[in-house]
């Protein structure tokens, strides 16, 4: 029997690999087609990316930590050649063709879609995008760095940083399984570029590769811009964004309407809600379609620890969307609206805190882009394994971090003290 503490879980890294080979043919269909710009490569590109995949799966966090487990037996079978040096791992990522990695991510999506593991969310395909700053430095910089002036007591200093925009697919849960959220793609923000322009470049590529993967794109208040709405409308997709800019005419118009119309009562999770749904406003003429505005005034009761009294708390949400009424009812718009946070909670927070994805493995624009794409691939494969392959009895009462620590332990266990001695 499979248990969380039994013998079976000690070989979880090999089980994960066995699963990815069986379901996705990862070595043949994802790794073998990879290439890079070296003229006479001695180290196989696939071996380099397979090594990085394990850096993320085992949450090693740095190339030095990876080099420490280079003596593990595990690598012989997985790489089909000895592991390269940490320096080569970074150097070759700077030369990798990022597009081939994106094809690999698409291949994983395609297999999961075919296996019916990515159902729509109540009949609507949902994706969310957002920008993320990965790291900042005063010292190191490269051609891909953005820069800003920081005013300090010691005078102005130039800080360098990298940002990217990521798109995450938010499918519904397959029967009896958790939902498998997928990181589909990311686009580096260029120096001097606005985030929405980066997002449109990302969406142009994603919509060509994934034309039917989603119907609506969720975004934060920054995306309440006509070019974003019009781009999606032109591609027959919908937008749903937070509306928080009080200067907007649209906001002022709906604020007046909310005061006149009685709300509909509803519930979102444990919160009692008042909903207003204004289906077709034309007070945003720059957008090439009428815009629908939904407001959810939500009240939840929190029990105070100090005096055990109930403390009601309210939050007020307003979203602008092109999703049609009544086909997509107000309760679903509210649910989608709150899902905009999924990319923070399940995407960036997990990538940074659990997967060390913000670590600069090599400060080079192409290496930063490719390491992040490998992290996406590792994330997607691991979540598919966790949700679809592990039996509910094995998953119950465990965390993903627990399974990751078993993978780290598996590599450490195979490094004999002899190979660690100076
Ligand atoms: Zn840089």
Outline:
The chain has 422 residues and is of the alpha+beta class. 41% of the residues lie in helices and 22% in strands. The chain has 16 helices and 10 strands.
Key words describing this protein structure:
binds zinc ion, 422 residues, 10-stranded mixed sheet, alpha+beta, 16 helices, disordered N terminus
Describe the structure.
- This protein is α+β, with helices and mostly antiparallel strands.
- It is about 40% helix and about 20% strand.
- The model is unreliable at about 1-10 (pLDDT under 50).
- The protein has 16 helices and ten strands.
- A hairpin with a 2-residue loop joins β7 (about 265-270) and β8 (about 270-280).
- It has helices at about 10-25, 25-30, 45-55, 65-70, 75-80, 85-95, 100-115, 195-210, 225-235, 250-260, 330-340, 340-355, 365-390, 390-395, 400-415, 415-420; strands spanning about 125-135, 145-150, 155-170, 180-190, 215-220, 240, 265-270, 270-280, 290-305, 310-320.
- Zinc ion binds near residues 141, 142, 145, 162 and 363.
- Zinc ion binds near residues 142, 144, 145, 160 and 363.
Tell me the structural class. Answer: alpha+beta
End-to-end CA span: 42 Å
- Unreliable stretches (pLDDT < 50, length at least 5) are 1-10
Helical fraction equals 40-55%
Bound molecules: zinc ion
Total helical segments? 16
Largest sheet: 10 strands, mixed
Please tell me the overall pLDDT: 92
Strand content: 15-25%
- Overall shape: it is globular
Q: Could you spell the SSE succession in H and E letters?
A: HHHHHHHEEEEHEHEHEEEEHHHHHH
Number of strand elements: 10
How many whole angstroms does the radius of gyration measure? 24 Å
């Amino acid at each position: 029997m499979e248990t969380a503490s039994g013998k079976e879980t000690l070989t979880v890294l090999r089980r994960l690999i066995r699963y990815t080979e069986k379901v996705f043919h990862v070595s043949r269909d994802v790794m073998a087609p990879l290439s890079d710009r070296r003229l006479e490569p001695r180290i196989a590109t696939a071996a380099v990316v397979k090594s990085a995949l394990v850096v993320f799966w085992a949450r090693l966090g740095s190339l030095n930590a990876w080099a420490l487990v280079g003596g593990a037996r595990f690598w012989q079978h997985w790489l089909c050649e000895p592991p390269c040096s940490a320096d080569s791992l970074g150097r070759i990522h700077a030369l990798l063709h990022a597009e081939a990695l994106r094809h690999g991510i698409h291949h994983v999506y395609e297999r999961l879609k075919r296996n019916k593991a990515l159902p729509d969310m109540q009949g609507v395909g949902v994706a969310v995008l957002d920008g993320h700053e990965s790291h900042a430095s005063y010292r190191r910089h490269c051609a891909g760095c953005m820069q800003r002036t920081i005013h300090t007591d010691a005078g102005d200093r130039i800080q360098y940083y990298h940002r990217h925009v990521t798109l995450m697919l938010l499918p519904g849960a397959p029967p009896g399984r958790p939902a498998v959220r997928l990181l589909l793609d990311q686009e580096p923000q260029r120096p001097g570029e606005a985030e929405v322009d980066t997002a449109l470049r990302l969406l142009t590529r994603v919509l060509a590769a994934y034309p039917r993967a989603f119907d609506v794109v969720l975004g934060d208040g920054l995306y309440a811009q006509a070019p974003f709405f019009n781009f999606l409308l032109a591609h027959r997709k919908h937008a749903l964004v937070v509306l928080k800019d009080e200067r907007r005419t649209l906001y002022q118009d709906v604020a007046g309407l909310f005061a006149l119309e009685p709300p509909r009562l509803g519930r979102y999770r444990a919160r009692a809600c008042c909903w207003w749904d204004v289906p077709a406003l034309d007070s945003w003429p720059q957008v090439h379609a009428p815009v629908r505005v939904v407001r959810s005034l939500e009240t939840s009761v929190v029990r105070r620890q100090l005096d055990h009294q109930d403390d009601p708390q309210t939050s007020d949400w307003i979203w602008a969307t092109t999703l049609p009424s009544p086909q997509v009812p107000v309760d679903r718009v509210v649910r989608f609206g709150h899902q905009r946070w999924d990319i923070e909670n399940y995407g960036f927070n997990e990538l940074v805190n659990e997967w060390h994805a913000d670590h600069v493995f090599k400060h080079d624009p192409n290496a930063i882009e490719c390491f992040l794409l490998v992290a996406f691939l590792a994330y997607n494969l691991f979540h598919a394994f966790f949700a679809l392959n592990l039996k509910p009895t094995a998953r119950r009462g465990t965390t993903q971090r627990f399974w990751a620590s078993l993978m780290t332990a598996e590599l450490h266990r195979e490094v004999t003290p002899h190979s660690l001695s100076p």
